[in-house]
Amino acid sequence: MNAINPWALGVFILFFAATIVIGSSIQWIRGLFSKKTNASSHEEWSLGGRGFGPWVTWFLVGGDFYTAYTVIAVPALVYAVGAYGFFALPYTIVVYPFIFLVMPKLWKIAREGGHSTAADIVRARFDSRALEVVVALTGLVAVMPYIALQLIGIRTVIQALGLPGDLPLVIAFLSLAAYTWLGGLHAPALTAFIKDIMIYIAVIVAVTVIPLHTGGYGALFASVEHAQTILKPGQGLPYATLALSSALAAFLYPHTLTGILASRSADTIRQNAVFLPVYTIVLGLIAMLGFMAHAAGIVTTNNSMVVPMLFQKVFPAWFAGFCLAAIAVGALVPAAVMAIGAANLVTSNLLPTQKDPVRTSRLTSLLVKLGALVCVLFLNAQFAIDFQLLGGVFILQTFPALILGLLKIRFSAVAMLSGWLIGTVFGVSLCWMDGLKPIHPVNFGLFSGNVSTGLLALGVNILIVLVVSAFYPAKKAATTPQQDSVENPA
């Protein structure tokens, strides 16, 4: 265990605690200064009143899309396996056209129908309570490993500061719980600005100073084995399929969809899709920290500690504390949106008749975080990034109902339920067989290679949907205004 450095710990506490206090008090402040705002309403707590403009949406969507996954897990994977860890870059590039083309349509349907979740939209399209429930439950299950990744991020930096035992995990859980309970969606929307500024400062300084400390970028790459800078034989297929499956899953999660539905207009979403690639540049620089750790002589068997150890070795204690606070805030902001998105599923789809939906949402978000805590304690994932990829296996099974449901081709609810069930069972079974790894070896004739488990399960899901739809076609019904808006979105 590291000795506690008072400068590093003091700076960390200052920035991390300030973020929690600011986020937790934002609802109260808004209630004081805005007579038109009902700070205690469920829509204010869960969707920010659906009034976020381009700037707030840009920071919020980027804030819940680029998480501890980005700052902790990606460099850790690059440190351990080299170029293979860069699959996160093409995945984020592929996802932006998807946002531009599809998300404004979903936003329009949600706004016209008063929907706040993916399950709401699916229910309106297929008129199936059963399908609504399974989509909501899938979102809840899928988001827990993702929140677990954020808890790991906060725990990791607190451990790096020298705090002992299980105390870092307890602090991570309690800080996240208080921040979400009091602040609602306005908390991460506001503090996403703080988070991004802190991350930008930490990354820009890191990619400038660390190479100088290690002899420049030439020396940096020379210190890394050549085999780590290129994909090894057999890594190309899992690299490509993980990138594709991650891109398809990215905006199906409750938290990313919550950021979209909280936007003021469809044009706001399109503008964000154009400018969000800026985050990919930062992601590429962050991934490089895995190589920089090798150049700086970092040696560890705990891959999640790579970036904190690198910052502590190269930077003075006070700036290392600032960088570690940036990572912790970078986990806190998206984890709050994840918990809120999951809570929306409960109050809107699983327990929609609650008299006090805000209280129910707060309790649900707390229970979801407890579920994430269980994931941290009992799931044996070698790399923190596996938590995000395992969640993707689940959430991809909602792709047919939510995205294919936008097409003019009418699929039946029976077909969607059958595809979801078989796809989920198939994906979970493969993950269990492979020791909770997100890729599966496939041998089919002359074809042999490792493929994303989520993509395999999605393929099975869609196949079942097509087959069952042939035998149980969708019932023809009179077109309602809401159906017309789905089939002919602006």
Walk me through the topology:
Blueprint: H1 6-33, H2 42-47, H3 54-65, H4 68-81, H5 88-113, H6 118-126, H7 129-160, H8 167-183, H9 186-213, H10 216-223, H11 226-229, H12 236-250, H13 254-261, H14 266-275, H15 277-287, H16 289-295, H17 306-314, H18 317-350, H19 357-378, H20 385-395, H21 399-402, H22 413-433, E1 439-444, E2 447-452, H23 453-471, H24 481-487
Antiparallel strand pairs: 1-2
Helix pairs in contact: 1-8, 1-9, 1-18, 3-9, 3-13, 3-14, 3-18, 4-7, 4-16, 4-18, 5-12, 5-14, 5-15, 6-7, 7-8, 7-18, 7-19, 7-20, 8-18, 8-19, 9-10, 9-18, 10-16, 12-20, 13-18, 16-17, 17-18, 18-19, 20-23, 22-23
Membrane topology: Multi-pass membrane protein
GO cellular component, one term: plasma membrane
Protein name: Sodium:solute symporter
Structure commentary:
It is a single chain. The chain is built from 24 helices and two strands. It is mainly α and 490 residues long. It has one domain: Sodium/glucose cotransporter. It is globular and about 70 Å long. The termini are far apart. The C terminus is likely disordered. One of its GO terms (cellular component) is plasma membrane. It is found in: Membrane. It comes from Acetobacter okinawensis.
Structure summary:
It is a multi-pass membrane protein. With 490 residues, this protein is mainly alpha-helical. The protein has 24 helices and 2 strands.
Largest sheet, in brief, is:
2 strands, antiparallel
Run of helices and strands = HHHHHHHHHHHHHHHHHHHHHHEEHH
Mean pLDDT: 81
Largest sheet: spatial strand order:
1-2
The H-level CATH homologous superfamily, spelled out, is: Sodium/glucose cotransporter
Tell me the CATH topology. Sodium/glucose cotransporter
Number of domains: 1
Low-confidence stretches: 477-490
Query: What is the β-strand count?
Result: 2
Architecture, CATH level 2? Up-down Bundle
Number of helical runs? 24
Helical coverage, percent range: over 70%
Distance between the termini: 57 Å
Given helix and strand content, the structural type is mainly alpha
Shape: globular
Instruction: Note the beta-strand portion.
Output: under 5%
- Based on CA atoms alone, the radius of gyration comes out at 22 Å
